[in-house]
């Protein structure tokens, strides 16, 4: 029987972890961009746009991410479209991330005091000007900590894509376990790598929260 | 013609009729205080004049600009009449100077240099020239309110609406704000102010409007309204004020 050193295991896991990082970045950036577009509709004046985004958010927050991955992977296959695992994984995670970010950000925009809208309106500003110069600059400060915090959920969410066959950290863990028969060591290392990715994110979210609060303490 | 013409204005929130047909004309340079119990509709009336609330009936005209619910008309109206709020509502992410510059640059497209010069003049006028770079949370309530006044003045409105502008201030800070308002009045600014400062209303205002249950109940020069109230409601209101 072949033997594997700890370094063999770790090296393979780290190589696969690159894909976890890439998928996380793609999901977070793609979801962020889509989330911004949805936010524009969600807080805009058009009723149809608001309803659409609300429905979208309820759909994606109300179903498990795993089902969304299955639907993206197998569902499109039913129509004869051959979807590679990386595409289904990226697509589902982007849609899922956007659904959460748009709600986080909507809350941040709405947390800006009503008086700010009234004061800027009374000075003659239009809706876009109010948003651009008064509301969003304040909302962004509020939004940074929860947004960074949510990125942790995205990183952990990528683990589910192993089920549709995308080889990232979790999938690599399974593969390596099957070869080494050392599940505890392998999954222990997998968990440590996830932790090494997530902990700095949640920590920086905490630090940012403190920092932005201090700059904002009297409001 | 009057600068502000309020004609048969009615306003309801759901089932509650807050304004039941208000008629009030304010002349250029006139200082009008609006007094009355809370819920009498005085703040709502003021907010209607600035288009922060829409009216259900009647009309409001300020120097030819009419209150109509679309962006163009509202902007035209708001360029004629500025508003100062109980809660100051300064933009917390901008310095005092930037607060005063922003709307000039964004709404009137004034170049930055000119806007800054105007901001410095206006802050000087309210006695805060040295606070140009201070952020709102570094200023006292009274100072914040004076910045808010400077911000409204920088748009060069023909009239200012003051909605209980000293009610959120600590007692020792009230006078510095009232002093600024008094100076504005002396300079000939048209002012409509909802206030609980009866002594100030008596000293500074040309006319006092007593509102009661959504109507102008009594109106006249301060000597008359305070010295010789003709309705029991006003007498009761003034009596309650004296006890406090």
Count of separate structural domains of chain B: 1
Query: Which architecture name of chain A does CATH use?
Result: Orthogonal Bundle
Give the averaged pLDDT of chain B, no decimals: 94
Low-confidence stretches of chain B: none
Span between termini of chain B: 39 Å
DSSP helical segment count of chain A: 8
Strands ordered across the widest β-sheet of chain B: 6-7-8-3-9-10
Task: Walk me through what this model shows.
The complex is a heterodimer of chains A (219) and B (244). Chain A is elongated, with a radius of gyration of 21 Å. The N and C termini of chain A lie far apart (67 Å). Chain A has a single domain (6-214), classed as MetI-like (MetI-like fold, Orthogonal Bundle). Chain A has helices at residues 6-42, 47-61, 65-78, 85-110, 114-122, 127-157, 169-180, 183-214. Helices cover 80% and strands 0% of the residues of chain A. Chain A is mainly α and 219 residues long. Chain B is an alpha/beta fold. In chain B, the strands form two sheets. In chain B, strands 6-7-8-3-9-10 form a six-stranded mixed sheet, with helices on both faces. In chain B, strands 2-1-4-5 form a four-stranded antiparallel sheet, with helices on one face. In chain B, a hairpin with a 2-residue loop joins strand 1 and strand 2. Chain B has one domain (4-243): Rossmann fold, CATH 3.40.50.300. Chains A and B meet through helix 5 and helix 6 of A and helix 2, helix 3 and helix 5 of B.
